[in-house]
Inverse folding.
């Protein structure tokens, strides 16, 4: 039997959409990181770190 998500209200969809956007942003940063020269790694790592924490904040609101 598959996992079913049963939204409780409209807020769920807003937060789910926000979490999806965060995943897309994280993937874009990762793609940029892979192609970036070593000098940019620290900046990109900080951006990824900040994006990760934004995702954590959204997850806390969903659960």
């Amino acid at each position: 039997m598959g996992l079913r998500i049963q939204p409780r209200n409209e807020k769920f969809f807003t937060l789910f959409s926000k979490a999806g956007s965060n995943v897309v942003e994280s993937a874009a940063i990762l793609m940029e990181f892979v192609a970036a020269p070593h000098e940019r790694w620290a900046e990109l790592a900080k951006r990824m770190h900040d994006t990760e924490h934004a995702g954590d904040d959204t997850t806390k609101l969903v659960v």
In short: The CA atoms of residues 27 and 45 lie 13 Å apart. The chain has a mean pLDDT of 84. The radius of gyration is 15 Å. The longest helix spans residues 10-35.
